[in-house]
Backbone:
């Protein structure tokens, strides 16, 4: 089975994130990059599918040179090889363009299942899985907290407000996973050493038949018009309990329309 | 691990992966083990399962085939996270005696099972009540009886005995009185603790840390001759070669503690406001931490040098011993600076400084006393007369 797991490098969630003043895109260079947390679940799920059904796990990453660190980590967790789509022309692509570029790569490398996290912690669009499925003309199984593959059939449990839906489709398909679907493994010593020797195929836009005019900041369908730094946190209100603490807290909450 | 620039990308990945694993074992976990004097079984299992304890075993025996520098990074990362590598570190290096001096049959029998985490070989009995730093004075005796040795005697400070399946035992096969050179007549035996059963009695020693360590009593313990490592009577040499690795690795985890103290204390000094300003603004608070930090780096460099020498096939006695000496002193300086920085909170269990402080005192004494390291440098390296 040919399993592709999409892995995005995002700024460390604990780090202070900044937009660059020159083009209003996220500053990815000055902060530590980590694997998008939900993608770690996707990696784990892809490894489990591989272990259960045989096959190969390919990491697909679109991102700057620096994202190679995250690719290494995914390989050290156990993925077999990687494709790194890296090209200056891609800088500033929005989700529509990203889905176009990644779909082109997926067409080129082929797949039975594509797995990805249901959203990334930096942009939080949560639309990539749907767009990829649409562009590739395959089934979309989103927000999965359970994945089962049986021959050419894939079944997932899709989390919903009221519980979950059981979703079934035939392969090939695109699956997005949610947190807690599994417990992502740690990279092991042997995994780290083995990762050094695993192939990483670097592709530019031309290599993947991506039309450079259709990607990048200038052609993006969305535009960041303006941004301001988050205001510093205001001093909180301290309620001193002189017997009427409960009432004061209730009044405060009511004044903010919480109750 | 401040030498980022000099770590390979794989070593950076090792450091990060270990730190990630350790993040699942937060301060509270260690505080509780400490309070209950409990062995951190879950933590040691997690380390073993991810292969971190078998890095020094060659790949042909199922291990990671890593270097002492790799092992050093692992242990430093564990202690820098606030945890402790001590309950597990001996599983990494005790097998080195078997690897370097054991027969092929012994290596095949043991190493793959250590690598696969099926057995623990992490107890090493050297010290005896009447033989502390003067190892050649040990009296535990193994008498030959056909295909077996019959061992009688006692050991003290045998750590992790209760969490081991096998132990290495240094004993006399010829009495001290009957050898020409006092380092002769010592042998290393591999004791299967499950087989030994009741013939080894133990008494756990309560100490000021949660470290599991014991007094052992051997009564006619039968050990097959096929479990002797190397030649009879040459055991002292075998354990000396293993000690360089032990010293480098102990130095590494001690450095992890030292950096942990500085990390915690400098963060606290930036935040804690007294007299209307952060205490870290006072040079009386700032300088001891800065001093300790610089000392830690110096010790760390000697550690890297020792590891590099060992990994290139040398026996870096001076560097390995110096690394342990300097690391233990630098970390003790850091521990005291942290205690002073935290003021009263330093002694409160919930701030973890007092726990690490207690742990930081031990490396000045064990596994080898700093006095003995100085004596070694004095006579072995500088050629001055021996004091003992
Ligand atoms: C928690 C803990 C765990 C341990 N784990 C193990 C273990 O797993 N296996 C094992 O075999 N041992 C273990 N040890 C023992 C440890 O290796 C010894 O404690 C250490 O070697 C020192 O021996 P000693 O305590 O008998 O001190 P002693 O030899 O009695 O020395 C006492 C003091 O006198 C000083 N001194 C002695 N001779 C000289 C000299 N010639 N010049 C200058 N100063 C001198 C020493 O430096 C020291 O300060 C452990 C010890 C502890 C505390």
Residues:
């Amino acid at each position: 089975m040919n399993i592709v797991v999409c892995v995005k490098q995002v700024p460390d969630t604990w780090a202070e994130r900044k937009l660059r003043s020159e083009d209003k895109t996220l500053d990815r260079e000055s902060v530590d990059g980590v694997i998008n947390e939900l993608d770690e679940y996707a990696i784990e799920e892809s490894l489990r599918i591989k272990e259960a059904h045989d096959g190969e796990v390919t990491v697909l990453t679109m991102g700057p040179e620096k994202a190679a660190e995250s690719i290494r980590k995914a390989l050290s967790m156990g993925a077999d090889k990687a494709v790194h789509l890296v090209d200056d022309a891609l800088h500033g692509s929005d989700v529509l363009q990203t889905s176009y570029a990644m779909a082109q790569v997926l067409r080129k490398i082929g797949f039975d299942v594509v797995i990805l996290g249901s959203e990334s912690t930096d942009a939080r669009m949560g639309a990539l899985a749907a767009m990829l499925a649409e562009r590739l003309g395959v089934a979309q199984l989103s927000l999965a907290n359970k994945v089962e593959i049986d021959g050419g059939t894939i079944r997932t449990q899709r989390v919903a407000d009221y519980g979950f839906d059981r979703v079934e489709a035939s392969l090939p398909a695109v699956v997005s996973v949610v947190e807690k679907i599994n417990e992502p493994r740690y990279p092991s010593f042997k995994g780290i050493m083995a990762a050094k020797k695993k192939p990483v195929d670097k592709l530019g836009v031309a290599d993947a038949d991506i039309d450079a005019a259709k990607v990048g900041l200038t052609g993006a369908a969305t535009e960041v018009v303006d941004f301001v730094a988050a205001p510093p946190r205001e001093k909180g209100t301290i309620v001193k309990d002189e017997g009427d603490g409960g009432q004061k807290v209730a009044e405060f909450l009511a004044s903010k329309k919480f109750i | 691990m401040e030498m980022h620039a000099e770590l390979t990308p794989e070593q950076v990945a090792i450091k990060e992966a270990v730190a990630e694993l350790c993040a699942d074992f937060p301060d509270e976990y260690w505080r509780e083990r400490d309070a209950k004097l409990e062995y951190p079984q879950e933590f040691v299992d997690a380390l073993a399962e991810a292969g971190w304890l078998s890095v020094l075993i060659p790949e042909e025996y199922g291990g990671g085939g890593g270097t002492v520098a790799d092992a050093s990074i692992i242990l430093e990362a564990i202690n820098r996270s606030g945890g402790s590598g001590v309950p597990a570190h001996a599983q990494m290096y005790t097998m080195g005696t078997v690897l370097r001096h054991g027969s092929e049959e012994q290596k095949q029998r043991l190493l793959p099972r250590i690598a696969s985490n099926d057995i623990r070989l992490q107890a090493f009995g050297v010290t005896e009540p009447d033989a502390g730093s003067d190892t050649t004075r040990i009296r535990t005796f193994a008498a030959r009886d056909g295909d077996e040795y019959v061992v009688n005697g006692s050991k003290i400070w045998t750590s992790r005995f209760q969490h081991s399946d096998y132990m290495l035992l240094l004993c006399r096969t010829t009495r001290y009185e009957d050898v020409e050179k006092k380092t002769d007549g010592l042998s290393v035996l591999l004791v299967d603790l499950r087989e030994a059963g009741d013939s080894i009695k133990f008494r756990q020693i309560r100490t000021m840390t949660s470290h599991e360590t014991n007094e052992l009593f051997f009564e006619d313990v039968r050990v097959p001759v096929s479990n002797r490592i190397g030649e009879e009577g040459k055991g002292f040499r075998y354990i000396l070669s293993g000690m360089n690795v032990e010293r480098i690795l102990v130095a590494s985890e001690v450095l992890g503690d030292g950096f942990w103290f500085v990390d915690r204390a400098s963060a606290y000094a930036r935040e804690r406001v007294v007299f209307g300003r952060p205490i870290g603004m006072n040079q009386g608070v700032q300088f001891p931490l800065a001093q300790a930090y610089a000392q830690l780096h110096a010790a760390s460099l000697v550690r890297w040098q020792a590891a590099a020498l060992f990994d290139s096939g040398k026996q870096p006695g001076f560097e390995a011993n110096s690394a342990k000496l300097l690391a233990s002193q630098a970390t003790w300086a850091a521990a005291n600076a942290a205690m002073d920085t935290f003021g009263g909170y330093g002694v409160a269990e919930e701030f973890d400084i007092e726990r690490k402080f207690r742990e930081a005192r031990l490396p000045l004494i064990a596994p080898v006393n700093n006095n003995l390291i100085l004596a070694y440098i004095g006579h072995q390296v500088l050629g001055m007369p021996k004091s003992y």
Notes: The CA atoms of residues 299 and 316 of chain B lie 15 Å apart. The mean pLDDT of chain B is 96.
